[in-house]
């Protein structure tokens, strides 16, 4: 490179990829409808967090686009553990609901794991029930036979659809949360993906020591700009998953800031934008999980 400032990473375009996937899912939903089956996504939303409200609204908008029915359980921030568990029980019992999610995070004081354990694993559209996480680890089933968590599955699909193979690659995951970091680490070490995974987090002593050797970096720590250009090997593939809402003290307006510093684009080979990268893929994979749960139910019914 003659001009060091002129390099720009290729874009892992999650928005366009998610649109393509939604087109494919629309056809599968139509095929189910021809057999008299309408997939239905249920959501449990507790409280008035603006981010969570926006995500749940977006999920139902996506459903309408591809022909999936919507069921909502909206509870106040004051909802008790028992109230939330009752909402989960209603969706478990409702035949119109073929898959559902509990929007996270739940308010402080609620035992999230207890709530997630009550979700019927066959209706678990987020792939976060212990049975489905266990299947992810044991590789009892592939993605079609049991749901994978939406963000890890979205990252995989984004890479595959850009012609990027993980086999033999050194992947450094930054972040150990259940919805992204820890689960994508476990998934990528499965034989079929064959990646070498290092799971780092905010307690890692020397993050740069790990990331500088990575072929692929999955940044999911939720720390704005934690991945700076000097932490990235030239040509590496960088996925910006973390999202932090930053409120400007002056204007009060909110901006979303990713884990990846914008100057990483001058070093990386591929970069997922944020917004427009992994977020839209997460939403598309939720729809895929709902459609597949309905398809499995049809097969099980013979
Ligand atoms: N039960 C769950 N809770 C949460 C999950 C989840 O997968 N299941 N993930 C996140 C939130 N989330 C979905 O719920 C989510 C976050 C962001 C996006 C997204 O498309 N982001 C856009 C930008 C959005 C904006 O402008 O506000 C983007 O990246 O382009 C989708 C889903 C935590 N909770
Ligand atoms: Mg190497």
From TrEMBL:
EC number: 1.5.1.5, 3.5.4.9
Reactions that this protein is recorded to catalyse: (6R)-5,10-methylene-5,6,7,8-tetrahydrofolate + NADP(+) = (6R)-5,10-methenyltetrahydrofolate + NADPH; (6R)-5,10-methenyltetrahydrofolate + H2O = (6R)-10-formyltetrahydrofolate + H(+)
Residues annotated as domain Tetrahydrofolate dehydrogenase/cyclohydrolase NAD(P)-binding: 149-297
Keyword NAD tagged: no
GO CC annotation: cytosol
UniProt keyword terms in alphabetical order: Amino-acid biosynthesis, Histidine biosynthesis, Hydrolase, Methionine biosynthesis, Multifunctional enzyme, NADP, One-carbon metabolism, Oxidoreductase, Purine biosynthesis
Single GO biological process annotation from the record: L-histidine biosynthetic process
Pfam family, one: THF_DHG_CYH_C
Biological role stated in the UniProt entry: Catalyzes the oxidation of 5,10-methylenetetrahydrofolate to 5,10-methenyltetrahydrofolate and then the hydrolysis of 5,10-methenyltetrahydrofolate to 10-formyltetrahydrofolate.
HAMAP family named in the record: THF_DHG_CYH
Name of the protein this chain belongs to: Bifunctional protein FolD
